[in-house]
Amino acid sequence: MQRFFFKCTDCKSYFRSVNKTISCPRCGGHLLTSYNHEVLHSSAKRLMSKPIGRGIWRYLDFLPVYDASRIVSLGEGDTFLHRCSRLAEAFNMKEIYIKDETTNATGSFMDRGTSVAVTHSVEVNAHSVCGAATGNFGASLAAYAAKAGLDCTIFIPRYIDLGKLYQMIAYGAEVELAENYEDAAKKAYGLSDHTHLTSTFDPFFLEGEKTTGYEICEQLGWKTPDRIVVPMGDGSHISMIWKGLKEFASVGLLSSINVKMTGVQLEGYAPIATVLSAKGNAPLTEPERAFAGDIAIAKPALASSAVQAVKESCGEAVTVSDKEIFEAMELLAKTEGIFAEPAAASTVAGVKKLRDSGRISRDESTVCVITGSGLKDPVTARKMVRKNRLGNMVRRVEDRSTTPLLGSTKAKILSTCSEQESYGYNIWKTLEEHFSLSVKIPTVYQHLAELEAMGLVERIGAQQVMGKPARYYYRLTQRGEKVLETLGPSS
Ligand SMILES: [Zn+2]
Q1: CA torsion angle 419 420 423 424 (round to 10)
Q2: Would you tell me which of 8, 332, 340, 490 could form a disulfide with 24, CB atoms 3.0–4.6 Å apart?
Q3: pTM: predicted TM-score of the whole model, two decimal places
């Protein structure tokens, strides 16, 4: 008996298998996995009595995998569900939980989906994978491709969080810049003839995403909270959590699913929230922004599924501003010890907004899904700590970590010029007499030229000595003084 098959969300066609295609071969719509109900029932019994595997693979029977011996795993899933008493106090709520996805292998919830997607790539005997990514998916795909020994090419938009880019490169992926996400997706598709195309909306990836919902229920003692709050980028995570809950209910693992699915988007970039509020059409242009870029998506692939999840569950969508997200990041880190990236912290900002306006009651047990780690976006992380009272100390440490690039000879030249304005020959003599450093005179001039180019010293005039080339005097610039200060007395 076939355990699972695929159904198009648009034309409703069924397919027994999909190999290289990630969308409906008839109409191009999105494919979702459906399971044979009888098989799912017996799987539910097994899950309660004797589950196999760990993390998301605990739910192996509920995932579209043909051969369990080929699973590609980095230990994804089984993330903590924290009961957050200090955050609850701040929001005057009884129960608020954080589903902390920052502890996945690459620091984001994407690993749940990528593990299933790359397992499928291995099952179809692919030698390489490719994909388009706004950030976290690229980091995750690169890591799982590395684990599976597959070549990996990722197309990214110009605006992307640096930490995610560092990850992709560290995991050995080939990374190519595209104009924007739409262009990246086109370029990835262009490679799909000879490379296995993976995306955040292929049916295998999507199935992995639903395990966030499975785990929340199981961690709460096989029941749903009153509300689950999820960031909405392409709309896939919220849709799939809802799909997972319905599956659990259909096989009796949940007696009811009274949960309001609540999606968070950014003010001004909220196509799904706009559809739900019936205020008009979604914006068609892709925003060029890095801050919370993973959820600033102009044309969300699973918008209609996300709308359906919110409507069916009597939930809602909420939009938050950059400032509200920033404040939520700080609050979450300081009250609960969880450092979230902006897109992730949007859920906490969303709860605050709904609570302030009375749309969430004090008694509603609420789960915020924190989808990714704060260090993935070092630019925002730096902004956050620099405005702290310890900001000056941070600046000094940052300077210190860049100054070793100067090298010790340049540091000594700076030190010499700081005593008094000096010229090449004199500096050369000082290096030898005070620092016992023997270098050739042209080397000193080369260093001076480089220090000048770096803006650390400046020429303040030439002195003409009879019959000799002009003698140039150098002194430290303000920046040079600062750098010298950070180098400390050893220079
Ligand atoms: Zn179709």
Answers
A1: 0
A2: 8
A3: 0.83
